Fold each of these.
Amino acid sequence: MILRHAFIPPDNTRLANLAGSFDEHLRTIAAAFDVKIQRRNESFQVEGAKGHAERAVLLLQQLYGRAVRPIGAEELELAILEAMNDDAGRDGTAAPDGATERPEVDLRLRTRRADLAGRTPNQVQYLKNILCHDITFGIGPAGTGKTYLAVACAVDALERNAVQRVILTRPAVEAGERLGFLPGDLAQKVDPYLRPLYDALYELMGLERVGKAFEKGTLEVAPLAFMRGRTLNHAFVILDEAQNTTPEQMKMFLTRIGFGAKAVVTGDTSQVDLPKGSTSGLIDAEKVLRDVKGIATTRFTSADVVRHPLVARIVEAYDAADAKGR
């Protein structure tokens, strides 16, 4: 099928931003929807399967509306991802947990990023689960926004005074290196393992506000071992990289939760760095707590990856190789 669309009246700045340098954006869209796109001034011709061509034209129209400024590669990839998920929601082919209806609520969080919201059905469901449950598990591959969205929810809860403090923790498990080989005291040794959490905080709150929150005690970042013996009331607690906990550590963490507290546990069960033969606390908890009321689990897939498109293809390749090995 061949579809033709012309942007009238033409705006050369918008057209240039839409097409990208040397029509790079058009090639990216064409590859994503498996179509051919030809442009002649303000006129576009899209050739491909009917559904794919229609989606590509619709995305071109949406992007043209944004093209008062240059469109970055990340913005383009996210727009393509949103367009594909919109189609999946309408077709009933990729909604989470077998659902065919699109989420009714577009959750937006109070952070420095005013546009922050779930971009895929699973991400939206994840945000809903965090809002409606005291304990939420987010399990899936890298790049799906598990940790980032959890930190955003924590910052939002702090901004709304729903909690008194935010505590971020993760196990200090080496991925091929030994803590003893790193320079400095204990705090300096574990700091590299907590760096992703700091990065998310800085982006969502700003460097100055993060520093003040640490001084006031409303923000705390600590290795999991420091959680033992504590009772966490009126706190938003995030356990990141939970696939590297033992079942004993997971039980210890989950039983720290006190009144007015909310906990989010994130991890990727395909990247366990525990010694061979050890059981992952995250895998164990998913089985043991499956039927416990008040606990929700969101499973992410490669379709939820919002990083470079190669990341999703890498995840899919490894999943396929694992399945073939089994």
Amino acid sequence: MGRPPDALALPVGNAGNITAYWKGFKEWREAGLTEAAPRMLGFQAEGASPLVTGRDFESPETVASAIRIGAPASREGALAAMRESGGLIESVTDAEILAAQEALAQEEGVFCEPASAAGVAGLFKLAREGRSPEGVVVSVLTGHGLKDPDVILSRTRLPDPIPATFESLVESMQREEPAAQ
């Protein structure tokens, strides 16, 4: 891009990523390499959102296992990133996270883990509420879908196994094609 985005959306669990990204942007600015730094937009899963609620979660619950954190280690750094950048830290529901994960797969061909989709889910939520960030907005996807495949496997019917031959693959694909109209 050649410059920082205007807003950067990240999933937040232990809050290390949002803290580290903000530190890097501040150092880049202090070194005179840029005048701008993005608004930091952090999104926690609703069932594990201690930064949003202001209280730790003894038993956090969410499908997004990588951000299922009840007491973030980098709490103060994340809150500083939010304040100093004019950003926000909000929560998204598991349904919003899963919808974003599905949209990323269908629309962009990107298979990310549920936690990774939290930033995109947050951007979708802000858009629905008429609060879309302005300018260039980037969302960091922090993990591949194979990092947490159980969520997908629980929501998907896998195809029946076929013999490992090209002919079997072609035959299987022909069975799956919809009838011509």
Amino acid sequence: MINIVLFGKPGAGKGTQAEFLKEKYNLTHLSTGDIFRYNIKNETELGQLAKTYMDKGDLVPDEVTIQMLQSEVDKNPHSAGFLFDGFPRTIAQAEALDAFLETKNQSITATVALEADDEILVKRLLERGKTSGRPDDQDEEKIRNRYEEYNQKTAPLTDYYKAQDKFYAVDGIGTIEEVTARLSKVINNL
């Protein structure tokens, strides 16, 4: 079983690459954004709980997010592995994910970071914002704020996973095919 954490700054290509990786390696793609939207739309108990925080402008607590992920993992007992996209974002979340996977006799196999220059990513997101309809992709100040938050909260995960010899950086700039080939090379050598 392969369990991969895919991370990178907004616009680095995580969603695009996740689609290729899940097909190629028969992984179950767990995007926290998609899981949140599903639970809120379907008014599940966890979705309603998450919405109470979001409606106040607060971050959803880790324990709620982890419960949603646990539910998704439990729904896929025959999966060949999981591709975690958007989670973990902090060391506390990484520790919670490790503890949960341990209860399933599993662990994170690798963490792969798509790396790219901020200026290139800002241009990418502003371009995406023209068609995505996402307001957070249309405002350069908001984009840069998301990068600052990433640098403060998510970047420390690099050291966390390096200490476990599970961190791999991949150049996220190039054609979709070139980036997919780089990712595949890392995964094939796990």
